[in-house]
## 1
Amino acid sequence: MSSIRRRPRRRVALAATAMAAALALTATACNGDEESGEGATPSEDASAGDDQLQDLIDNLPFDFDMEAWLDGGWENWDRDTWMREIGEYVNPIIEGLWDPDRMEDAEDPDPSIDEDQIEEDPNPPEVDSPEGDRGITDPEPAPVEAEPVATPYTENGAPIGKVFFDSPEGPMVCSGTVVKDPARPGQSNLVATAGHCVHAGAGGGWYRNLSFVPAYNNNGMTAEELAAAAPEEVAPYGVYWAEYVSTTQYWIDNGTDSGGSGAHGDFAVFSVQPEDGSGASLEETVGAALDVSFDAPAVSDLGAVTLYGFPAAPPYDGAAMYMCVDYPGRLSMDATMPVMYWAGCTMTGGSSGGPWLRTNEAGEPELISVNSIGPLESTWLAGPRLDVEAQGVYDHVSSTMTG
């Protein structure tokens, strides 16, 4: 089993920097009043960043009114103004929007598929290379009962948390993980999750008010206890808002809200900033970030893999973090794409986007996939094998935010 241990916490003072050419426009507001960013230092860089952000608004294919958005315009899901393409993501911070009550009300996106769509090969060939695995589906994995992760999560799962967002159906919840940023060693602000937790896929667009809460419900309180809990117990590290997000073009072109289409590319990465304006990076704050492997070995050499998430659909209630340990098999619904992994696990919706971790040759945990789809009976979960396109998403967010 891959375990996650929190490093000793350290604080580093970071200089204020302007966000360059971004997919997300960020601004803080209370009671609908726009602020420039408390504690920011005026500079030529900041001025250039403001100009680039204004260019983003000016180049959207529709009118964007920041003040109206902060007053509740984000609830308008007119398809003509549903930002879809790269370069059309706007996510202004609305302070206090994700309070404990609204987090509790968030529903899980349904990742279920009809198992009749899957054609198992009773005698699948043994192939030693990921490239040769394409089009192969191993027999369905046996169910593995999910087990609760030990508390406090700040010590046993600090980089894992909940992803919150607004969809046309209302507030939604997924899971996500703090991952390392190659451009900012030790100071990552990157979160990995599933593509269907940030974008609706074919015919849809980017979801709104995308935020991340690491180590949600740190002490594993019940849903009833959470209702009366203090905000710092619900969100021990606070709320982090996405300022830049990307997913695979395969998901954007093929993804659907059910049925598994697009699942082979169901991966996303976003960069965050703290709602409270604090200066430390997400990695420094939680004390950990995970490596991402885009060159994992063939399934036969993966070894045991641990799946994590916050399942929210019955029989779970989304309050606690769970995990499953299994040896993955191969699942293919598109022979032109790398196989997906599938493993026994009873976690349900809400665990979407949670990490698949294996122990690498150096003895360290690394992320090789994220929870994507499962059957109606919730006996297994599947996630995409991360390859060139997934790495392109990761590198794109890292380099853009650094630039």
## 2
Amino acid sequence: MRSTPGSAAPRRGRRTALAAAGLVAALTLTATACGSEQDEADAKPGGGTSRAADTGDTGGGEGGLPAGLADQLKKHGIDVDQWKDGGWKNWDRDKWLSEAKDFVNPVIEGLWKPDRMKSAKEADKTVTKDAAADQGATDPEPAPVEAVAEKKPYHENAAPVGKVFFDSPEGSMVCSGTVVKDVNHPGKSNLVWTAGHCVHAGGNGGWYRNIAFVPSYNDYGKSEAELANATTTEMAPYGTWWADWASTSDQWIKGGSESGGDGAAYDYSVLHVKPEQGAKSLEETVGAALEVDFSAPSATEVPSMGAWGYPAAPPYNGLEMFRCVDRPGRLSLSPSLPTMYRIGCTMTGGSSGGGWFRVVDGETKLVSNTSIGPLENTWLAGPQLGRSAEAMYQNMSKTYGGR
């Protein structure tokens, strides 16, 4: 499915280039500001919601699972031992868990091995049916911006960025995600921001399974040949973090589709994660987290935005982190839906869910995430994060953040 092409936007001038350089520099500083234990100790936090079920945090359950989670699986007619032994591969669409309260994601230690991570396919970017249609607030289609490889090692230049892995009926899939601050638990965040379509299939499906986040994936950007016999530590230097709770918007659950649908403007998600091994928080482990900007400024008010992620569809292979920085424009899919941000960018599938950042008073903040784009891979669009997104985030932080 192709979106209707529009007129190309004029090339950006020197002012935008300087703003782009400032955004890149600010992200680097933010990512490395918490590099030492002392820095971590001194770090300070800068509508409709869907809530994951309380899966419990006490032992004593069957199959080595927390008792609350074992009970939750049983509630849906799922045998705990069979699930752990591969029963999660059985996708009965009539029984696909789809409601907000139905989320279950038990840790299967060792499931995401290096080869399994490398073989995960990109989650196709949702593609709008007629993305260039003038709904009264759509700007001309931006000129493509060639994605630039992020500097290595990633933990020194873009520490909050990583990959989101999950299983779907089509097999193992991959998106991108960002470690974000937890305003109610400063310095100890376990929250990851990504796209709704990276955790839930939308109106015609349910929650994906085995959802996990790997920060600074392939930290040194090694090639496929160099990673032929890679260890888990090489691929996941800061460990594998499993989503024990997840939230996305009601609009995505009800109206999301492979082409974006009415849920595209609400295509965002926040995960609460826990380590496969270890006790420190995600923020303490990676040494960085970004504040989320819920002010939803108009694209006309922002001189530049940058999108970061791990594109996996050709010509990329998902092993390296890339970024695009551009002056954002507006994309309106319908007069009844919020306007989305749009930038020129050549990143492909796999970059979905990756954070969009802007600089506010010298601080880099997450302002959106990659959601949709055309099959030609010339631009990306992401939702504005307003009151509904903030309510989802606050609910996750207050209800699950300290667990």
## 3
Amino acid sequence: MNPHSLSIEGISVRYGGPDILHALDLNVPAGKTTVIVGANACGKSTLLRAMSRLVTPHHGQVLLDGKAIHRMASRELARTLGLLPQSPLAPEGITVADLVGRGRAPHQGMFSRWTREDDKAVEHALEVTGTTALAERAIDELSGGQRQRVWIAMALAQQTDILLLDEPITFLDIRHQIEVLDLLAELNHVQGTMVVMVLHDLNLAARYADNLVAMVDGRIHAAGSVEQVLTRETIRAVFGVDSRIVSDPISGRPLMLPIGRHNNMLREDDDPVQVRIELEGDLA
């Protein structure tokens, strides 16, 4: 896959009322995994929708390889950029195989026939998401976690160079959360797929992101490496929560420990290094 540039220049978005996004500027690192985090209703999903052309900014623009996406042909954009929205809807009665096959639509012209390449893309997407055994079942019959993996399979079948995913591990148990995030990491590392996703779990975001974007009230509060963004100050500003940041004994990345009113054994002057040593001792 070829590396692409994706940038946002001063976009503001509203849904008939006050602005949801306020003059945002953002450069998404090419060939990297970017994770967007923030409190509920801060504009994360709206930002992702604007990046995929599902909503049109009333000011500013989103640029793909220097070209405004709102001026690109739909098929051209869909061959490069794929989106998994937060709450996708499937036609009633559609089977898993048929839904995943719809991911191939951008690769087919008006008079194109289904090809062996399409078959291979769908088979691969079903296999890597663990949904092959579900291929002939109706989407309506599946659990929430199964449906989520099928939607991810459809996004993968599209075979785009850029994947935008809004909370892709919602409804998944921890095993399938890790499997999906590992799969996205492999797509990024092996194929160079640019991944941009919204996640709620800050520690999983820290473990899998190359670039972290923290939003507050429709604005970008901080953006950069995980080490730059995941700080006590940022957590307090973005979520209104006190925390401690230690080193994740598994990944070596920052690990956020939230502080509540109960079960709090940490003191303000606790040494983060000692906390990390104690965590590693617990895992040994």
## 4
Amino acid sequence: MYKIIKNEWISYFRKKALVSITILFIVFSTVISFLSIKQNQELLQNQDKAKKHIRQQWDALNDMNPHGAAHYGSYAFKKTNVLNSLDDGVNAITGNVLRLEGHVQNEMTYSEASQSLSISKFGKLKPILLLQYVLPLFIIFLAFTSFAAERENGRLKLLIIQGASPAKLIFGKAISVALFAIVLLLITIGLQLILNKNALSNDMIVRCFLLFFSYSMYYVILSLLVVFLSAKLQTATAALTTSLAIWVVWTIFLPKIWGNTVDKINPLPSRQVFNEAMKEDRSKGIDGHNPSEDRQKALEKEILLKYKVDSLSQLPINFNGLVMQADEDYGSKVWDKHFGNNYKIVQNQKKWYQYSGIINPFASLQDASMGFSGTDVLHHLDFLKKAENYRRVFIKTLNYKQAYGGSKTNDWDWKADNAFFKSVKDFDYQTPSIKSNFSDYATNIIFLLSWLVALVLIIYFTSKNIKLL
């Protein structure tokens, strides 16, 4: 098999067109990687500048009422990781800024897609476009003549006479094609490591390795399939047509069809229905029998009993701060109910989409690519949850300062000093380590491995029946 692979590579270097295309691919990959990394670095710099500016404004607050500061609010920035330059996943659509304030849980804003006129169906020009769409086409056009050319020049008969079995020929030629693609893959990912060397962490290196492993498996799968078709079908034209048809189905039709099916199996409520349900629960109570006025009266009775006084004016604290915090606590329950339900639906959608890897290895590759790059929907939900948790602590700190900081009930002129506002910690989001959520993507790896093993077994047991002459 080693001689087969060696001879295949010698023939590759003799093809001037292939050498030229390979050089062109490397040039394009280098340019695109450089530009995408530079763009990602500029985004990170702008985020850092904006974050520092917002913090400076907060630290410069004059003495003011804590509740006023809660409405003044702050911002949470979804800090992109370095692999966003390789595969930006859902980040270009979801946005990267979240306003944090009292009484309200806002949505993400400032997505790149909403501010760009050039966002296409395939997204922005990133290295991932080359790895997912262009390089597989290279594999197809390199492999579909694997056996047709050998038949035409009579070399196939000579190889068989010399003892090369059909299975050995198929595996040798497939490995040769796959190695060609893997070398280009290694160059592309290597550029990410080199150009991002100052910002790489151990976690990002592990993520790069997992990306390399996932794409390598997909390229081997595609190489085995195309070479097998080239051997199975009598003409190169038939092999090319069939291979391209499979590629189109895998990359374009199946993801769309399965995605629409998943949306119907696990539908998300419309924005209008969702907002109305949130508004109703906010006003009437989650169970429909506990409106806000009743909750406030119950809280007042509880606090008066706790401090053993007869009226709010006799309280040594500011009851208004407790009311606002009670409203926040209740709003959090409403948020947990409705957003929690949406999160479950989205997670179920993701699982169902992963199951399409049984019939479509490209789906497993695409999902693994976004997951290992830290740019899929699960990483986005992680940011939203952590930002909301911070918002709750942030607003609770302000409300408790209003309640226990020295003011009395209905004393809205009372102000907290600047030192207090400076003591409030800022939000700092960190991408979760791949070790902590690898199980979410293990399904993709299992399906890719299953495809690989299945193809190897099919080729091994059916190659004897292939007519190679």
